[in-house]
């Protein structure tokens, strides 16, 4: 494989990633939504398992990302997008993706506990309560307001580098055969030096996500989720460039 370099596209590249992701989605909308529905069902079923359910969802998340990235690459190269791509992470880079999944799970647990310890608020419980404000008593609502801002602010600050490290790492494992530690570091560094286009990209998709959530029965999410992953592939290909290709 050719050695990689991390390019630094301009801020407007964030919009180009969103557009390219949408183009890839439109090439095969039915397979994309079908794959997303299947993943939702599997993760929901796993999440309902006692004790280990939530852990399994975190550990398997890099495999989901790897599968969608593989499908995005296949679609961009003219291959039909099929459910077979969902198993790409199990066929290639399984051990490294497992390490990334476990690292993500442990880091998330550490962050939740650290936020609770430093702010006196249970971040996970606060997020659940914020989704059902009508069910709160006045006392509970007052407590949520008093603790939500510091807890969510600290949680966001701590989760940001974790998300940066795990965003591109499945692709680096799958496509470039990176070991997990190197993949996590490269992903973190690539996001740090490309914060401008990534911020632009995040704002655009954030607005699209708000619209998607408002569509009944989760139908909007069946489009939004694969769109985020096809656009992630577009960002990946724009940021991680083979040295010879960049030189030419």
Instruction: Give the biggest beta sheet.
Output: 2 strands, antiparallel
Number of strands: 2
- The total tally of domains equals 1
Overall pLDDT score: 89
- What's the arrangement of strands in the largest beta sheet? 1-2
Number of helices: 12
Shape: globular
Radius of gyration: 19 Å
Span of the ends, CA to CA: 17 Å
- Name the poorly predicted regions: none
- Please trace the helix and strand order, writing H or E for each element: EHHHHHHHHHHHEH
Helix content: over 70%
Q: Would you tell me the structural class of the helices and strands?
A: mainly alpha
Fraction of residues in β-strands: under 5%
List the helices and strands and how they pair.
Blueprint: E1 4-6, H1 13-27, H2 29-47, H3 53-76, H4 88-91, H5 94-119, H6 123-130, H7 138-167, H8 169-176, H9 180-193, H10 195-214, H11 219-239, E2 240-242, H12 243-247
Antiparallel strand pairs: 1-2
Structure description:
The chain is mainly alpha-helical. It has one domain. 78% of the residues lie in helices and 2% in strands. The protein is built from twelve helices and two strands. The chain has a two-stranded antiparallel ribbon with strand order 1-2. Helix 3 packs across helix 8 (169-176), helix 7 (138-167) crosses helix 9 (180-193) and helix 8 packs across helix 9. It is globular and about 60 Å long.
Task: Looking at this protein, list some descriptive labels.
two-stranded antiparallel ribbon; about 250 residues; mainly alpha; about 80% helix; single chain
Entry summary:
This protein has helices spanning 13-27, 29-47, 53-76, 88-91, 94-119, 123-130, 138-167, 169-176, 180-193, 195-214, 219-239, 243-247; strands at 4-6, 240-242. It has 248 residues and is an all-alpha fold.
